[in-house]
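Hey team,

Filing this mostly as a record. A colleague (T.K.) asked me to run one chain through the structure pipeline before their review meeting, and I want the input and output archived in the tracker in case anyone asks later how it was produced. No errors, nothing strange. Just documentation.

Input sequence:
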Amino acid sequence: MAVVSQTCDASQGSRPNIQVAPIVELQGRDQQEASTGKRPRFVPLPQLGESFFADLDVITTVVKTALVGYLRRAGVVSDDEVRKFAFAVSRKFGRFAYPDEVVRALAPVRDVLQTKARKLNTPVGKLLTAVHSFRVSCEDWEKTPYELTLIVITGPGVVPSEVDDIGAPPVGLAEPDPRTPLKPQVNAYVDYLTEGSRTPTETFFGWEYLITAWALQCEEAARGLADPAVIETVMSDLASVDDFPLARVLDSESLDLDYLSESRKASD
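Output structure:
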C-alpha cells in the first residue's frame, strides 16, 4: 500500500490516523494511459517500477500503528517525483466541476488538445509545448447566462509581457472572422506560429488570434446547445506565466483537458 497523507499528518503524534491507497500493477494500454495522466485514479510510483501505481479510487483510513510491521520503501524520492505525486493527488480531488453546458461548449478546444497535445510531430503538438496551462474564468458560476473567458498561459518568454514590446499587428496576418469557417483559420494560425522563426510581435499576434479563434469555436458550439442562452459569450485572453498574478489564479479555474468532467454529478 502507498501512504497518500501529507508528511505533516503522518509525522504528528496528535493525529493517530493515516490515509493509504493500494498499489496496483498495470500493463499495456492501461499503463500507458495512467503514465501519461489520462487516468487520474492511478498515480505513478516510479521508484517501484514504471508499471506500479497508487489507486486513488480505493483510499482508506487506517491507524498509524497498523503500518509498524510493514517494510517501508519509497515510491517517490527526488523533488520532481514528490512534486508530481502531490500534484496528481491534488488534481484527482481538486478539479472544478464545470457545468455540463460549459463542458460541451469547450468541446472544440478539448477535442483538439486531447488528440494532439502529445503528438509532437504535428504542428499543434509542437505548438502546445509552449503552453503552461489553460484556465477558464466566469463572472458568476451560480447564475446563467455564463460569460466565459478562455485563458491560455504560455511558458516563460514565449510572448512579450510588456505592452511596449508589442508592435503593430503584422501585415498579412488577419484577425479571426466569425463569418467564415473557423477551423481553417485555426490551422492557418498554427502553421503561422510553427513555420519558420517569428519576431516577438508576430508571435504575440499569432497566439492572440489563435486563442480568439478557439474562443469563437466555443461560442459556435454554445449556440448549438439545447439551451443556447446558457452561455452568453466566450472571450479569450493570452497571458504569460511570467506575469499571471495570483489574484487571477484564484479568480479562475484550471481547464484540465484530459480529465474534463462530463457531469457535475458524482459518479458511482
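Quick notes for T.K.: The first helix runs from residue 7 to 11. The beta strands are 2-3, 17-21, 23-25, 42-44, 52-55, 60-63, 131-138, 146-154, 231-240, 253-254.
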